[in-house]
């Protein structure tokens, strides 16, 4: 029997590409640049499985009129770049890679929180530019994190992993919002009834909800106004959860103290209004970027594909 035809839209870690090639008839994107829309459409027409990432926008137009592909194995946990309803209507199963990137992403959220609190980005820029004049008692003083309150928006796996780091590692109080009851959050933590209540109570707000849908611009001008003046906003979720213009305005007017962002509305372009500010820490979507995690994510995609083509339900089907 011939192997299912699989198109991978970006290069993956070597070990994963090797295993993929053992089981499937694989076409790799040798150039490792994002596919154009018509290339994605072609992929859906030519392959039995297409393996996209967050850089591929798979809107309803790509599925219109039917496609050959029967499964989309997304390399990543977030899938708001895929129109799930349209993919389902066209008969495709969509899978993602939950759980394997929880620790890496929570580590990066903690990195941003600490960098913001301790002005680490400012310090590094000062030193590298030769402007450091030596130790002095008032130099680049940041904010202590122990004893402060972190507010988690979205208490799923990553939110809980972040909360554990904050509570057990750094002695912080935890409050959170989640649209579902979370009876056993794994640490002493208070679930508050609204996002606004969490914003008002927190010294650091860390976003861990999915992007798209009702979460688009969840953190807008009105909600930023609920935050403490001394507070920081951390986003490792999706860029569209934050209204970037409103965030810049809040920073300019010193209505909040700073922000740590790993994700942006129109990646990879990042507004100049953000890159020119000292009070933000900006990273290029590195949440899951450890070698171990990226390998685990790829292997998870393969597990899902194998299940599907062997007639079993893929463990991480999202539709
Ligand atoms: C994820 O897994 O969702 C990462 O953000 C990359 O897509």
Automatic annotation (TrEMBL):
InterPro entries, per the entry: D-isomer_2-hydroxyacid_DH, D-isomer_2_OHA_DH_cat_dom, D-isomer_DH_CS, D-isomer_DH_CS1, D-isomer_DH_NAD-bd, NAD(P)-bd_dom_sf
Sequence ranges assigned to domain D-isomer specific 2-hydroxyacid dehydrogenase NAD-binding in this UniProt record: 110-287
GO molecular function annotations of the record: glyoxylate reductase (NADPH) activity; hydroxypyruvate reductase [NAD(P)H] activity; NAD binding
GO cellular component terms attached to this protein's record: cytosol
Pfam assignment, any one: 2-Hacid_dh
PROSITE patterns referenced in this protein's UniProt entry, alphabetically: D_2_HYDROXYACID_DH_1, D_2_HYDROXYACID_DH_2, D_2_HYDROXYACID_DH_3
Gene3D superfamilies: NAD(P)-binding Rossmann-like Domain (3.40.50.720)
Keywords: NAD, Oxidoreductase
Domain of life, per lineage: Bacteria
Boundaries of every D-isomer specific 2-hydroxyacid dehydrogenase catalytic domain copy: 7-319
Family: Belongs to the D-isomer specific 2-hydroxyacid dehydrogenase family.
Protein name: D-glycerate dehydrogenase
Lineage: Bacteria, Pseudomonadati, Pseudomonadota, Alphaproteobacteria, Hyphomicrobiales
